[in-house]
Amino acid sequence: MTACALMLGSVPAPAQNLPRGLPVVRDSETEQLLRDYTQPVLRAAGLGQQNIHVVIINDRSFNAFVIDAKRIFVNAGAVMQAQTPNQIIGVLAHETGHISGGHLSKLRAELANAQTAMIIGMLLGVGAMVAGARSGQVGGNPAAAVMAPQSMVMHSLLAYQRQQEEQADRAGVKFLNATGQSTKGMYDTFKKFASDTLFAAHGADPYLMSHPMPAERMAALEEIARTNPYWSKLDPPELQVRHDLVRAKLYGFLDRPDTVARRYPLSDTSLPARYARAISTYRHGEMRDALAQIDALIQAQPNNPYFHELKGQALLEGGRAAEAVAPLRRAISLAPNPALMQVMLAQALIGTQQPALADEAIADLRTALARDPDIADAYEYLAMAYGRKGDIAQADLASAQAAFTRGDWKTARQLAARAKTRFPVGAPGWVKADDIASFKPPRMNSGL
Length: 448
Fold this sequence. Notes:
Layout: E1 7-10, H1 13-16, E2 23-26, H2 28-44, E3 53-57, E4 64-65, E5 71-75, H3 76-81, H4 85-100, H5 103-135, H6 142-178, H7 184-201, H8 214-225, H9 237-254, H10 257-263, H11 271-284, H12 287-300, H13 305-317, H14 321-334, H15 339-351, H16 358-371, H17 376-389, H18 392-406, H19 409-420, H20 428-437
Parallel strand pairs: 3-5
Antiparallel strand pairs: 1-2, 2-3, 4-5
């Protein structure tokens, strides 16, 4: 896969401890924006030092969720559909409420208790049936005697989940109050959710839902949200521009050219519209036109690292690796967290076919991996760079690390075993290779 300004792929299974194949979006600009959105909220929740980060899922629906205490998962569609920063910040505050409340670990414990209660209930039901059969007094519905405990336990578990959702709503409001931000975006977003689910929930058994009934949830949320003293406070204009640029970028990369043209017509001369059109042109149109549009963006905001990054990406993917080096170096010098950019620069340096640039590529990749060790592509380019230098031991080790990060255990172990033979026993490279060669994949937990 090409390392790029916006990168689609699958979440690395070993590092993320998730099922393989979960579609993720990696993008420096979007990740930095969401990082800036979450940090104040996490600090307010007492989680500022917990290294919690946002994972972007390549899904167009409006959704966010947590499955552990280290990550908040946000669909790309949530960012694309949120018209203001405050709307997506409200969602992030709600998910932070789940983490700060320890809801995932509590739910796992509740599920374990529920499973135990269900098993005991089923055994008691079966025991009653057997006792009745022995006494000759079997009657009623035997299946109901077995299923009734399951139904009761399920109702209890769902009630517990609804309680957690209500608690997360309240915690989200608390964090927004503490950071001086409006709760209106959170309220408007969940009101839209309520409207979308109202029809589906009509006639449904409220005891068989994992979230509070729409009308009840909105009434409870409105009661606390409107006490927020910052209700009418708007997002800072500069933050709104960044938000609009990220939305335009996602549309430019993920939508077809005709869809982008309808959403951002030529009559729209705003910076986000020009950004979306430039991306769409580079991906689907004439490279000369795309570069002209990107240069115009750089002229409008010379210190925007992501415009320089886009130019480097366009040149790199257009087969002009040597020309991509300068704009990528410029992007890295301007960006607050340039790990993905450093991987792309290394790819460009390797693509120049100049062995003398291999050391610079290796340095960039090592720095990127120190910041973000889950970039599988970085290990692949590291293997290429070491190969250019004739360092086969390090090349094999990097290839093993790439396979490991992608969750390809068999290939990782094979490459690591070969790498071990090329290092002195006990050397750092040998130790790393040995760790991979002897690694046993954990069993994935299919439960909550």
